[in-house]
Amino acid sequence: MAEIATREAYGKKLADLGDKYPNIVVLDADLSCSTKTGVFAAKFPDRFFNMGVAEQDMMGTAAGLAASGKIVFVSTFAIFATGRAWEPFRQSAAYPHLNVKVCATHAGLTVGEDGASHQTVEDIAVMRVIPGVKVFVPADGVETEKVLEEIVKTDGPCYVRLSRAKSPVLFDAASYQFRIGKGNILREGSDLCVFTAGYMTSIVLEAAKKLEEKKISTTVVNMASVKPIDEELIAAMPARHRFLASVEEHSVIGGLGSAVAEVLTARAPARLIRVGVDDQFGQSGDYLAVLKHYGLDAEGVANTILKNIS
Amino acid sequence: MPIQPYGSVAVCRGSRRPLQWQSHWSLPLTAALRLVFMKKPSIAELEEIAHELRVLILKMVHHAKCGHTGGPLSCIDMLAALYFYKMRLDPKNPSWPDRDRFVLSAGHTAPALYACLIRAGFIPEKEMWGLRKLGSGLQGHPKRNIEWGIEMSTGSLGQGMSVANGMALAARLDKRPSRVYSLESDGGAQEGMMWEGAMAAGHYKLDNRVALMDYNGIQIDGFVKNIKDVHPLDKKFEAFNWHVIVVDGHNMKEIVEALDEAEKVKGKPTVLVARTIMGKGVTIFENKPKYHGVAPTDEEMEIAMRELKRG
Asked: d(Cα A11, Cα A6) in Å, to the nearest integer?
């Protein structure tokens, strides 16, 4: 299976969109080689601004450009985009509902060796709580491209969570249609329904095979649109499954699992097994080893779910 | 024909200066005609406008029963010069793409901005009584509303510097003649982000960018020099590659001349480091930290109005 990191797909697609949308402007904070905005910078040097290691200034500048009619893509590592620059994003971009698209890479634990200072397990929580901000977590390169095509046409602030690590291509570029506010069922089962997104989607698909071996028939729902979230789809699942779970490369506090739980409590009360990072910081290591350590490899995910349903 | 500087279209009154032919082809015809017949106010007229704005500010803040009294009075002479002399704006066409922009980085001085926009005809006068009230467009700190001439939501200090830079970069990208002004504060200069923005404006040589630093020396908890001194602001901006003009922020002639000088500077942003007095114009408020963030009482309002009427 072909593999590509979502950040690679982002860099390539952004440079393509630059042709179609002359009002796209891209900002980076000294990480354009890593976030892949460098591809856009090479093609459209006049519409790319390197703001240096100054994420707050980058976000404020983005708001000013957007207030003057630009569609502004802002990139750096997710922890800095959503941590260091959270308040300028909230005040200057989100409050006036401007066209600032924060596309942050190196999210989650799969940053690997750089360790906890550069990983983030809090970004979905802190971004989705801001009024009017849309949050997307694409699972592969194809979905990343589709998300970008949608957000560039969508007015207002968005957050797109991208990964450093390569992941398998799951979707067919010609046929896959991403819609804001819609989840999609990747496989259907009858015992267990797992909601997931981003890098974890391919891992959950693997975990589902292990669960099938244990006679747990598993549905996997990909929730790239974390906000707005597909309430109808979530609310329909408790009636069709005995068990529900969420799996994410994020804290179990405030992320996708919390978003799913919010819908369940309001629409279709049911028990939800939330699998993710359990109120801890990450640490250095090969990213696959790090995932395994936190129980987020396919085997770990399957075991945690099994333990909770037996 | 070269584009020449001209003042706000809102100020068409009482000038003795001869008419000037102005050219701006991107303007809609009606706005262009208004600009053709526009005249700039004299220094004395600007001083009179600033005086009226002081009264307007105090009435608003007093009616709201809360908000900031000192800051709006310290920056209002500079804002009067911007809105009624320098900036190219058209209240009949507030979203005119080539307009100049103003960002109130010191968002807590909102009543000063609102007073200017009311007098310039962007905001209906009756709205002034809604300041800080539920459902009003005149929020405690500015909320972006282009129809009313409010260019950006501000209030969290230090951010307006970067936002204004972004607007200046956009104008440069689009080859628009817009110039972007911001009002900074000495308290705001304690924010790291303000200096990130100052560094960026210097680096990108934003010569369509002017910051006005309202250096009144007072912040909520007391005197800036005691809390965390920002002195010397002129040297700091110089080191960040800005063209620095030190002015008396209550001397209209100095302000106007500095704004004109800023327009001629090439390859650098300009900052007016303006020495000001918090609460300027009302003796009982002047230079008293207490009046940074409170509204005048009925009694203080009476004293203030007596003094302003006499002036």
From this structure: 9
